[in-house]
Amino acid sequence: MSSNLFDLLERATTDVERNVISTADGASWSYRELFALTAQMAHVLVKSGVKPGDRVAVQVEKSVPALVLYLATLRAGGIYLPLNTAYTLAELDYFIGDSEPRLIVCDPSVREGIAQLAAKVGADVETLDAAGQGSLTRKMTQQPTSFDTIARGPDDLAAILYTSGTTGRSKGAMLSHDNLYSNAATLREYWRFTRDDVLIHALPIYHTHGLFVASNVTFFSGASMIFLPKFDPDLIVSLMPRATVLMGVPTFYVRLLQHAGLTHEATKHMRLFVSGSAPLLADTHREWHARTGHAILERYGMTETNMNTSNPYDGDRVPGAVGFPLPGVVVRITDPDTGAMLPKGEIGMIEVKGANVFKGYWRMPEKTAAEFRDGFFITGDLGKIDERDYVHIVGRGKDLIITGGFNVYPKEIESEIDALPGVFESAVIGVPHSDFGEGVTAVVVCTKAGAIDEAGIMAALQDRLARFKQPKKIIFVDDLPRNTMGKVQKNVLREQYADLFAKPAS
Ligand code: AMP
Predict the structure, then answer these.
(1) In this structure, what DSSP letter does residue 122 have?
(2) Is the pLDDT of residue 166 over 80?
(3) Of the residues 174, 175, 302, which should be mutated to test ligand 1's pocket, given the most ligand atoms within 8 Å of the CB?
(4) Could you tell me if the CB of 292 is within 6 A of ligand 1?
(5) CA 443 – CA 418 distance, rounded (Å)
(6) Taking CA 153 as the corner, what is the angle to CA 152 and CA 156, rounded to the nearest 5 degrees?
(7) Is the CB of 48 under 6 A from ligand 1?
(8) Nearest atom, ligand 1, residue 304 CA
(9) Distance, C-alpha 258 to centroid of its chain
(10) Per-residue buried b or exposed e for 257-283, using 16+ beta carbons within 10 Å of the residue's own CB
(11) Mean pLDDT throughout 114-135?
(12) How far apart are alpha carbons 354 and 327 in whole angstroms?
């Protein structure tokens, strides 16, 4: 039997008349209507020459037809390859050259530039705009509403998602039909999704969080979603009385907390708030609980692995922790240098194994081999497992600071600084230092300008942290640089402050 994710979805859908997607303007689609659209679009793809295993590269604004395109690509046996809408033509040159797609779907405004890149790899180009209009949807109207989905095996590729590539070249993570299915099925059970759920979908759909976690879990539960083009706090608060779940990045929660309408009453109908893709501040977790009575459920995953761990549905959702390994996922902590397993409580490299873990990096067999050890994927995240088996993340391995030969985990310093009155949040980085190798540097955002100064922070840390961990310099900023998924871009900060401790030219 076919393991095509779409075939599995069709088999799992017991009532095709139920609503699956609605939009803020009142439009809605049943599963039957969604499936018919995917059939029409799959015909268009096949007519464009898309054959099983071909890549369909997509850089478009979020819209319902864009989501239809994802499912249609699976039906045609193709490999869906979404690209961040922020990428410039110069960046797309690399992605298109590397992935050699058969078809590229882009916004009409960049058609000309894309066509030149497409010509280099012999790809066709179709357009789709933010309103779901374009050559792609125009061609759909004449197509039949049924399509024989191409059978796929569990290990055949369903998608390639490029990693954000904050160091070195972005890599294409190859995800199979079973990688996606197994994770969706696990999360559906773990988070108790049912067909009565209504998800507020405000995440981008070029990333694992919005595309796979949010959409696939909804689909495989027979549930429905309110599909929003972007994060809009007013709209989200107003939709909560008819929704049950919100999935967000931490910045969603920080910004919603600034909304006067966020109350116990407004969130009464909601059953679950999920956060991930970047660390949720423990303070945000607590404040949210005080304001709404809900404990945000934080989970941990990545493009390469889908979701790995989650705080429990029942039981303690611990602020600052990412919960337990999901059923079927094994998490271990190893010594980053030797690879030896470390006991509970010790900080080391997080490695994961399970049906969720990807098939490797596209056309990078050596890089792939280097990032696996005995079947475990070496995530690059540093963390520990506590006495109660909760996993904690202390930062990316590449963010580890080595100063005077000592290891400093930024998260430890950030937690101390964040806990000080007057501090909203902080990012601790290492920048080149002539004496110490790297100098610990804290970049701090205050709750309001001047709420605390460098001397105040240094005095407070004096008795809390060993001297080598104390920042050599504190810099105050209005905001930390973040990418679209809310991750603090420490590489940007490291570049910006690279000369902080440079010796003056003599
Ligand atoms: P991405 O591949 O863009 O999803 O990024 C994955 C990375 O985001 C992980 O390797 C972690 O470093 C980080 N991440 C995801 N979820 C969390 C979380 N709940 N807490 C801390 N970091 C997270």
Answers:
(1) T
(2) no
(3) 302
(4) no
(5) 11
(6) 85
(7) no
(8) 2
(9) 23
(10) beeeebeeebbeebebbbbbbebbbbb
(11) 98
(12) 9
